Amino acid sequence: MITQVRGRLVEKSPTEVVVDCNGVGYLLHISLNTFSSLPSDENVVLYTHLSIREDAHTLFGFINKTEREIFKLLISVSGVGPSIARTMLSSMTSEEIQNAIASENVPLIQSVKGIGIKTAQRVIVDLKDKILKTFNIDEISVRTSNTNRDEALSALEVLGFQRKQSDKIITAVLKENPDASVEKIIKLALKNL
């Protein structure tokens, strides 16, 4: 199994790259996130996954091991093939996928082209525990889709507070006041920042 390719970037497009490794050119299928993270110089290291089917051997390339791990978890779900997994990794970052699965955000997962409601639910059922365990995500810190929360977080960022610190404090505020308005969340968070 080919697990990593290191070499000179010969060709690059948003969906695939060719990496020359000592005279052998490897065609790697990539996500948009990997494409946008590719270094500007010619030398690259991509972590890979070789997908073997009856009619094709396809090599997928990833900018980091986390993205590759998410890809492997996604293709382990019935109904999610390598192309859908790649589309998902192109639509969202690895972190967004982890959070969407951990917070059971069916509409977000379903928003990916090629994923219906049943597949989105299956992704969550099959992967939630694995995501929480593998990436050590604390279930309490998993965000529920709350627009007031997101607006308050954005406002605090604009005011110059760090996102991570603000996020923790907003989570604590919402635990005590789950129905708080944006203004109330910001005021209570500012007292604790």
Characteristics:
globular, 5-stranded antiparallel beta sheet, 193 residues, DNA damage, OB fold (Dihydrolipoamide Acetyltransferase, E2P), DNA polymerase, domain 1, Helicase, Ruva Protein, domain 3, alpha+beta
Task: Give the full name of the CATH homologous superfamily of the largest domain.
Answer: 5' to 3' exonuclease, C-terminal subdomain
Could you spell the SSE succession in H and E letters? EEEHEEHHHHHHHH
The total number of structural domains is 3
Q: Classify the beta-strand content into a percent band.
A: 15-25%
User: Which quaternary structure do these chains form?
Assistant: single chain
Name the strands of the widest sheet in spatial order: 3-2-1-4-5
CATH topology annotation of the largest domain? DNA polymerase, domain 1
- What is the CATH class designation of the largest domain? Mainly Alpha
> What is the distance, rounded to the nearest whole angstrom, between the alpha carbons of the first and last residues?
49 Å
Average pLDDT over all residues:
87
Strand element count: 5
CA-atom Rg in angstroms: 20 Å
> What does the main sheet amount to?
5 strands, antiparallel
Q: State the helicity in percent bands.
A: 40-55%
Task: Based on the coordinates given, report the CATH architecture of the largest domain.
Answer: Orthogonal Bundle
Low-confidence stretches: none
Shape descriptor reads: globular
Number of helices: 9
Quickly give the structural class. alpha+beta
